[in-house]
Structure prediction request, 341 residues.
Amino acid sequence: MVAGREAAVTQWQRDQAVSHGSRRCDHMWIVRVRCMVGSRIGRAIISLAALLNESSLWIPGVIAVSEKELIEEAASIISRSRRLVAFSGAGVSEESGIPTFRDPGGLWDRFDPLELGGGDIFTSLFSGASIPQAAVDFVAEMVAVLEKAQPNPGHYALGELEKMGILKSVITQNIDNLHREGGNTRVIEVHGNLFRLACMVCGTKLQLGREELFAMGRELVALMMRGDLQEIIKLVSRCPSCGGACRLDVVGFGEPVQDMGLAMGEARDSDALLILGTSGMVYPAAYIPEHAKKTGAKLIEINATGCYFPDLVDVGIVGKTGEILPPIVERVKDFKSFNIF
Prediction:
């Protein structure tokens, strides 16, 4: 796929720290490569731009590829796949109006997670602690935001790929249930699910419907504002097995992730992996692309803020999942209808 000799590179961000795993690079020029084509090319472009402080480069022999051509290449990989798996992060949910946790301006920029019980407000409350105002504000914001959130075109595109028999599972770090609402049935939620309660006494899990969850959320906010701990305990004491108090079945800071063995197994068994809206900063989930690559899978990354797995991806596109994935799926349908693969 040769479309000229100039690399389509634009200056994206300067003098900002960027993290990838445990590696941290401060005060370097970060470039946005519209279309990453193979890890060596991507690394060469980024390294030269950082070294030369140039916002655009001409590199002899480097292939410049348009977004359209990258969409075509991604569709080709997906069409040939027999075991496609998707791995999603907060960037996918952000397109549905849900703020990210770690990005600048995200939730952990505005709220101290330690003040919120490390992300597990219920356990903190039941220990007899007072209810900090930050906890009230956090829960109120989350209830309001999540109640409005709906699956976006990226979620629906993944649902289409499952209906076509191509996508076998979705591994997600998101806790908002939007992949299920978007049409996916096999979803591995390594950080849990807000729509599920877990009994703190016997461990029984209880799935909630959308209306039930948000009615409970609104009542919880009102009780927290009044500081009525006894009524909060009554509200969440709904275990069908023992009547015990339940907490949201989500992973707090310092808690073990859920179903990680299952997720790693899906990645190792895949022949293609979609990496969607994740910065690769949260471990152990960030190891998932490496596990897929080691067993020979092709990796496609779509991310609105940059390419975070340059050493691993075969195709990387900087863009929103909801804008890039639907045209990829349409091309996959074309390939399938003409029996090209």
Observations:
- The chain has two domains: 66-96+151-191+257-338, 107-148+194-250.
- The longest helix spans residues 210-226.
